[in-house]
Amino acid sequence: MKSSNATYWACQIGGWGAYSALGTTAAVMENGWRPSIIVGYCLFFLYSMSFSHLLRRLALRRGWLSLTPARALARLSAGAILIATIQTGLVVGVYSAIEGSLGVWRQPSSIVYMFLSLSVVGNIWVILYFSITSLHHTRELRRNETQMKLALSEAELRALESQLNPHFLFNCLNSIRGMVSEDPQQAQDMITRLANILRYNLQRDRRHTVPLASEVEIVSDYLALESIRFESRLRVHIDIDDAAREVPVPPMLLQTLVENAIKHSVEDLPSGSEISIRASLDNNSLRISVENAGELIEEQASSTRIGLANARERLRILYGDRATLQLTPRSDGRVAATLLIPRFS
C-alpha cells in the first residue's frame, strides 16, 4: 500500500510539475520574466495536484472504479472537464490579480484554448490513472486467486497426507496384543516399529516430500509388522538403486502402493505372494515399481480404491501432469504398480 501511494504521488508531482515547467518556459520565452507567470504556474501546480487528488478520492469513495470501463471513464472524464473549467478560471483570475488587468485573456479565444488544453491534459490523466489502477486491480485479483488456490491445495494435500489406513492400525494392535504374552520381546519390537510409522506420519517435512530412503525405511518397518501377521505368506524383495535414494518423493506414497499390493495378493491368495519393490532413475524421472502376484480384473481396474485415488490426487497437486501412477498386468501372472515422478520438482 505504501509503495502504491508513493508511486501515485511521484506521478502526480512529476506530471503536473512537467506541465507547469513547460508552461512557464513557453510563457517566459514569449513575454519575458513576469511575476504573474512565475507565481501563476507555482499556484497552478499546487491546485492542479489538489483537484486531481480530490477527483481520485471521489472516484474511490463512490466506487467508480468498480463500474464498467465505459461508465467509470465517463464519470472521471466529466470530473476532469469540471476541473479544467475551475483551473481556467483560476489561471485568468491569478493573472488579473497580479497584473491588474486581463492582458492576453481579453481575447475569448485564449480562454477557450486554455480550457481545451487543460481538458485534454485532464482526460489524459484520467485515462492513465484508470488504466494503471485497473491493471493493478487485475493483478491483485489474480494474486489473491492464486493464493486462494494454493491455500486450498495446501489444505487438500494436508487432508490427504493425514490419512492412515485404520485397518492396518487395528490389525497391528491386535497382533501386538497377541504377542504380549507369547513373545514379549517381539511385541516390544512391534511397538517400536509402529511408533516409528506413526511418528513419521506426524512429523513429515512441510515441503510434502522426503528422500526415498526415508520412505523405504518406514516401509521396511511396515512390512516387518505385516510379516508377523502373514508369516510365510508374505515374502519381500527390495531393490533400490543408490542414485535413487536421495530423490524426494511424497511421504507415505510408497507405503500406499505396498498396502495395495498386500491387500490384493497376500490377503486374497492362500499361498500369499512375493512383494517386489524396485526403484531406479529413468532419465530425469524416478521410476518406482511395486509388483505382486494376482490378476488385474476389470472390476478392480475400474474401482475407485481410496488409497490409490488418494495417491493420484496427491501426485496431481504436487506435480500436475508430470507424474503418473499406473496399474498394469504382467505376462507372468503378476500385477505392477508403476510410479513415475520428476526427479526435480
What does the secondary structure layout of this molecule look like, with pairings?
Layout: H1 2-31, H2 35-62, H3 69-99, H4 108-161, H5 166-182, H6 184-202, E1 210-211, H7 212-230, E2 234-240, E3 248-249, H8 253-266, E4 273-282, E5 285-293, H9 298-302, H10 306-319, E6 324-329, E7 334-342
Parallel strand pairs: 2-4
Antiparallel strand pairs: 1-3, 4-5, 5-7, 6-7
Helix pairs in contact: 1-2, 2-3, 3-4, 4-10, 5-6, 6-7, 7-8
Q: How would you summarize this macromolecular structure in one to three sentences?
A:
The protein is of the alpha+beta class.
Percentage of residues in DSSP E strands: 5-15%
**Helical residue percent?**
55-70%
Number of helices: 10
Mean pLDDT: 80
Could you give the count of β-strands?
7
Instruction: Indicate the low-confidence ranges by residue numbers.
Output: 299-304
Instruction: Count structural domains.
Output: 2
Largest sheet: 5 strands, mixed
Order of helices and strands: HHHHHHEHEEHEEHHEE
Provide an overview of this structure.
Helix content is 67%, strand content 13%. With 345 residues, it is an alpha+beta fold. It folds into two domains: 2-160, no CATH class; 196-342, Histidine kinase-like ATPase, C-terminal domain (Heat Shock Protein 90, 2-Layer Sandwich). The strands form two sheets. A five-stranded mixed beta sheet has the order 2-4-5-7-6, with helices on one face. A two-stranded antiparallel sheet has the order 1-3. A hairpin with a 2-residue loop joins strand 4 and strand 5 (285-293). The longest helix is centred in the middle third of the chain and has 54 residues, at 108-161. The two termini are 34 Å apart.
